[in-house]
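Check the record.
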Amino acid sequence: MREKEPKDGMWKTETVAHDDYRVLVPVVLTHDAVIVNPGAWTHYSWAIRDALAILPVPVVEVHLSEPLEREPWRHHSVVAEIASARFAGMGADGYRAALDWLQERAA
């Protein structure tokens, strides 16, 4: 986990990366917005999807590559139906796009 304190007009952010959903689920339940790259969990993790679905805050789905341009089994996302927005195929810039999207809606 890595936290970044906000500068004037900025948001406090926290970066969490873990391969155990039992670690991630409690973390996402404590934030004002969530930007998530579910990776392989995109296609089958109903635990992650359900944890995100109960949040009363925006959830933005991010993928470094575009899953729709990859193998057919990657085309389905269990997170997509509950995500407020989705950014894919932009590499790491997708995270910035997601943050910008959230900031525009908060203004």
About this structure: The chain has a mean pLDDT of 85. Residues 94 and 100 are 10 Å apart (CA to CA). The first strand starts at residue 2 and ends at 4. Strands lie at 2-4, 13-15, 34-36, 59-63, 85-88.
